[in-house]
């Protein structure tokens, strides 16, 4: 067997030049693969950090951990960095690892089809052009398609309206009455910024969420010099953040050990009490579900912004849009000049709207009719040589997703090495391995707070938790250390 030759000729297609796609390309190159095409529908790298440009946009995971373990950055300006610096990190990464030359920008893949005879994938872009690959990797993640509910009258609104993830900077908000629909992690970041400029803000909150302090801090030149002095300093800091967050994972279990869930709830309650003096507003902002069921908000300035006199918090959703405003669930019209949809993403639909067809023309939509699932979050039975990064049941509510993606890349490259072996060409996870894995995942998830009673983007409409991993990041690391080849079958073309 001459694996070097096969590695050099294995054609790898990666969808998306965001965090996962860039990391995968860099590590594949390091592993000796060179025929790599990254299909990116936009004109640049960075994915979600390129798309989201709303005021105050940043990460709610500390930056020294929200970065690759193999590309440490001593120069973060803040503990919780802001979008421009995070985007720059990924842009610099693409340059340093020479990934850009693999990118086909402004190329949106609309269909991927497995060719049973040729043992390869055929990709079709929006213009109808086709490409062939031996291995298909999705770096599309879970949060790339914004969700704007299709309310009656949506198109009749006369003012400016846009989704938070596609911020329309041409819409002037100064002095205007602005309705913000939704109160998730995106809203919590931009509301304090725009509250300072709008005339009035109407914050529609269908269900208020738990919020804990952020403790933002800037890193001065001395701190940056300290981190730059030796890698172990960043690695030690990363280890502490990761270990502390994994320890805190117990707060997300229904039978929480060591009173961790209670402590989390008390911390959030105290934060609300400290920051909101008005008992009526406090009551409005008190959630009616257990902390963690939805992602816990992290902010020092969200509650103070909501308490300002130019903000009305409306504990209700909306039911329609009119030319002049929105109709609340109370049936009243609330006039406004602009509407900002902070209504999240089509998180449970994963690769949609792209169409994916596997062996014997099996459609992924059909395979996932009862909710998306994958083996180790990465492989789907019936879809050979397909790997999903940040796929089903790999999201976290407590730690850095980049850790999970690095574990996936490590596992996936071992699979691709297998594919590149002489006489293999294609592998497919067996139906029994896939079923056994997902039965286990769902039974573990039933023990977590994500399965409790609230509406969240972690669940599909039927209530199945399709997005989250059930444990600590170290559990997933163990899960993905080495493939067990009995979980896979070799597919003959
Ligand atoms: P989200 O958490 O899904 O929040 C959407 C909000 O819109 C919720 O308050 C939801 O209300 C509301 N909503 C949805 N449909 C509605 C409807 N039909 N009528 C009224 N309200 C409606 O979305 P997000 O804030 O964009 O955050 C999504 C995820 O993106 C986060 O969990 C996080 O993983 C990621 N994110 C990360 C960062 C970061 O710092 N790393 C920053 C921003 C976002 P209900 O709660 O009642 O459903």
From TrEMBL:
The keyword Oxidoreductase applies. InterPro entries: FAD-bind_Monooxygenase_sf, FAD/NAD-bd_sf, Flavin_mOase-like. One of its GO terms (molecular function) is N,N-dimethylaniline monooxygenase activity. Keywords: FAD, Flavoprotein, Monooxygenase, Oxidoreductase. Gene3D superfamilies: FAD/NAD(P)-binding domain. The keyword Flavoprotein applies. This is Putative 4-hydroxyacetophenone monooxygenase. It comes from Hyphomonas hirschiana VP5.
């Amino acid at each position: 067997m001459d694996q070097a030759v096969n590695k050099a000729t294995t054609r790898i297609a990666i969808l998306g030049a965001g965090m996962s796609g860039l990391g995968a390309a860099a590590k594949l190159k390091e592993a000796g693969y060179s025929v790599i095409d990254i299909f990116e529908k936009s004109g640049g790298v960075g994915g979600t950090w390129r798309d989201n440009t709303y005021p105050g946009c940043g990460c709610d995971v500390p930056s020294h951990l929200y970065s690759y373990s193999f590309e440490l950055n001593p120069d973060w300006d803040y503990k919780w960095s802001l979008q421009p610096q995070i985007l720059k990190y990924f842009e610099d990464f693409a340059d340093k690892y020479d990934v850009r030359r693999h990118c086909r920008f402004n190329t949106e893949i609309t269909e991927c089809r497995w060719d049973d005879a040729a043992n390869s994938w055929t990709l079709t872009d929006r213009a109808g052009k086709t490409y062939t690959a031996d291995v298909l990797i999705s770096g599309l993640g879970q949060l790339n398609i914004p969700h704007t509910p299709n309310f009656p009258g949506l198109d009749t609104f006369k003012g400016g309206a846009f989704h938070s993830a596609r911020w329309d900077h041409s819409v002037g908000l100064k002095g205007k009455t602005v309705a913000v629909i939704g109160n998730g992690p995106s809203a919590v970041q931009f509301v304090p910024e725009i509250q300072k400029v709008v005339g009035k803000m109407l914050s529609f909150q269908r269900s208020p969420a738990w919020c804990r302090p952020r403790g933002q801090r800037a890193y001065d030149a001395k701190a940056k010099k300290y981190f730059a002095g030796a890698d172990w300093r960043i690695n030690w800091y990363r280890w502490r953040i990761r270990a502390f967050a994994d320890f805190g994972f117990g707060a997300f279990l229904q039978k929480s050990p060591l009173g961790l869930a209670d402590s989390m709830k008390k911390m959030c309650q105290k934060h609300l009490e400290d920051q909101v003096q008005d008992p009526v507003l406090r009551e409005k902002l008190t959630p009616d579900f257990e902390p963690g069921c939805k992602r816990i908000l992290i902010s020092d300035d969200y509650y103070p912004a909501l308490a300002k006199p130019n903000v009305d918090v409306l504990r209700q959703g909306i039911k329609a849009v009119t030319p002049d405003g929105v109709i609340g669930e109370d049936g009243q019209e609330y006039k406004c000049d602009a509407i900002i949809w902070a209504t999240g993403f089509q998180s449970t639909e994963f690769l949609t709207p792209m169409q994916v067809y596997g062996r014997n023309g099996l459609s992924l939509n059909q395979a996932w009719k009862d909710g998306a699932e994958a083996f180790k979050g990465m492989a789907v039975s019936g879809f050979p040589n397909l790997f999903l990064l940040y796929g089903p049941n790999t999201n976290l509510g407590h730690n850095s997703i980049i850790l999970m993606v690095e574990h996936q890349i490590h596992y996936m490259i071992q699979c691709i090495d297998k594919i590149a072996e002489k006489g293999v060409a294609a592998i497919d996870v067996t139906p029994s391995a896939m079923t056994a894995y997902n039965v286990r995942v769902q039974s573990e998830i039933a023990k977590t707070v994500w399965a409790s009673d609230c509406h969240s983007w972690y669940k599909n409409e039927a209530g199945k938790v399709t997005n989250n991993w059930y444990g600590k990041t170290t559990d997933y690391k163990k899960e993905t250390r080495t493939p067990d080849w009995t979980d896979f079958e070799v597919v003959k073309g």
